Amino acid sequence: MTRRRVGRSRPPALALLLAGLAVAFFALPFVGILWRMPWSRVGSVLSNGAVREALRVSLETSLLSAIISLVLGVPLAWVLAQFDFPGRSIVRALSTLSMVLPPVVGGVALFFSFGRRGLFGQYLDRWFGIRLPFTTAGVVVAQVFVAMPFLVLTVEAALRQVDPRFGDAARTLGGSRWTVFRRVTLPAVRPALIAGLVLSWARALGEFGATITFAGNLPGRTQTMPLATYLALESDPESALVLSLALIAVSFAVLLGLRDRWLGAPSGRASVAAP
Amino acid sequence: MSAARPRRAFGLFALAIGLVVGVSACSTKRVTIDTDPNASITVFAASSLTGAFGEIGTAYAAAYPDAKVEFSFGASSELVAQINQGAPADVLASADGESMGRLEPGTKGAPENFATNRLQIIVAPGNPKGISRLADLARADVVFVSAAPQVPIGRYTQQVLAAAGVTAAPKSLEANVKGIVNKVVLGEADAGIVYVTDVLAAGSKALGVDIPGPVNVVATYPIAAPATSKHPDAAARFVAFVRSPAGQAILARFGFGPP
Question: Out of A49, A200, B183, B233, which could bridge A150 as a Cys pair, Cβ 3.0 to 4.6 Å?
Fold first, then answer.
């Protein structure tokens, strides 16, 4: 509805100076990478079969992780935002704990729970023959563990901002709880939903520590781009730079594209557009 | 108005960039050589040396109470990359000559061998899968993990298996030897090939199965004071201490062989 005017007035000098420093701080490492990029080798490195496998594993697992985070994370965010129950703050802290945990520790924790000898993993193995470590499914487990909190936090914050009177009005008009959630609440938080989805996807795509600890590193199965990049750094730093460039390009394109397409839309419009 | 303001904004932005560049420029000081043998030095050492060098540091401090030594442990290849990027290492102890060889020309110094390490099959305590020889690593019921071929231990494992004529498919190619040890200690893998010193360091959490001498690989550890060191005399004294009988005795206790 009323979008704040952007770009008309000039920010104060001090803010501009500090913001400039922040931008430089973010931009300079990428300038450094581009500066050292062996451009003549980009084609040959990217056409390498192992690199293409790593890119495929990365894209498949990160997309799946983002979808699982969405399916499990939205109901969790909704429960946290809308219902008051004992221990809610504990549940909220628990579901965002993996954000602050060093990923390697997260990986070891996953071993203790879902590993072959883990608390639950031993039954997965004994009853169903499911072993998560060293499998692509294990990569997804590690990624969801670190990525879902981003979606939960973003969506929960947005759900709290939704005026409950919209929902109440819809209910009085005869909408079922599910209909209200689907046609009123969800559209109202659509920008946050997209933002959370993108954040969790980006976190999953960049996941390294928990993945290499819990899922190991096997080309074509559990070796994602960050793992391939790290290992390339050991022997062939130039190809590691090319791998980083590929990862940066994919992520930057998606972040840029999604922002302009969905997040740029005036928020609040969706909540009144519901019929 | 519209012409002046963007220009001022641009000026501030340029100032911000200038500040960042200026700060980073300050850190590249001129090299000044300090010939004090007690000067504080930084020793970069392969992660397999963590235990042994910790103790060597203590013994060195006892022998030279005024000296100050700091350690930085990591994968040899990583340490070399850091030194090539200007990390202030006075001594580099590498797990293989190949990594040491990747130091940029002119920074190498004069590497001398100071220790050797052999390989062993690492298994869980009690050896539940009954692994007694390299061929057992190829068994379908054995989860075998190795390291990526970029890492020395990954390369050595390939050499050992090839020499023994064994084709074993690893379930994971870890980034370093500690990754292999952890997978076995945590029970996710049944076996891996690591250094004798790693099995020893794992204590009661793991067991070593010997690999026959003819197919085993002997890893030779070189040590050097990179030419970029600002404390060459202190660095040389530390290197001499590592190679002295006192240093060698400590290394032997951690499972290392003589050079």
Answer: A200
What is the ipTM for the molecules in this complex? Answer: 0.73
Q: What pLDDT is attached to residue A184?
A: 84
Closest residue in B to A218 (Cα) is B172
Does A241 reside within a domain? Answer: yes
Number of domains in chain A: 1
Q: Is A17 on the interface with B (CB under 8 A)?
A: yes
- Which domain does A200 fall in, by range? 41-103+133-273
Burial of A213 (0-12, 13-18, 19+ CB in 10 A): buried
Q: Is B145 helix (H, G, I), strand (E, B) or coil?
A: strand
Q: How far is A219 from chain B (nearest CA, A)?
A: 8
Which A positions 168-187 lie with beta carbon below 8 A of chain B? none
Question: Could A217 and B12 be called an inter-chain contact, meaning their C-beta atoms sit closer than 8 Å?
Answer: no
Alpha-carbon gap: A201 to the closest alpha carbon of chain B (Å): 24
Superfamily of domain B119-210: Periplasmic binding protein-like II (3.40.190.10)
Q: Is the alpha carbon torsion for B5, B7, B13, B16 positive or negative?
A: negative
State pLDDT tens for residues A53-107: 999 999 999 999 999 999 999 999 999 998 888 999 999 999 989 888 898 899 9
* pLDDT (tens digit per residue) in B183-209: 999 889 999 999 999 999 999 999 999
Please report whether residue A108 resides in a domain.
Answer: no
Q: Is residue A115 part of a domain?
A: no
Candidate from B13, B20, B171 with C-beta closest to A218: B171
Query: Does some domain include residue A262?
Result: yes
Question: What are the structure tokens assigned to B127, written together?
Answer: 């050896």
Structure confidence at residue A253 as a pLDDT band (50, 70, 90) = confident
Q: Residue B159's closest CA among B87, B101, B216?
A: B216
Q: How do residues B46-86 score in pLDDT, each as one tens digit?
A: 988 989 999 999 999 999 999 999 999 988 888 888 898 88
Q: In chain B, what is the straight-line distance between the N-terminal and C-terminal CA atoms, in Å? A: 76
Domain boundaries, chain B: 41-116+219-253, 119-210
Closest CA to A134 of B183, B198, B167, B148: B183
Whether B192 contacts B184, CB under 8 Å:
yes
Chain A residue whose CA is closest to B80: A234
CB within 8 Å: B20 and A24: yes
Neighbouring C-alpha atoms within 13 Å toward the C-beta of B172: 34
CB B67 within 8 A of CB B60: yes
Domain B41-116+219-253 coded CATH 3.30.450.20: no
Is residue B35 within 8 A of residue B229, CB to CB? The reply is no
Residues of B in contact with A20 (CB under 8 A): 12-13, 15-17
Of the candidates B132, B180, B129, the one whose C-alpha atom is nearest the C-alpha of residue B154 is: B180
Q: What CATH number corresponds to the domain at position A223? A: 1.10.3720.10
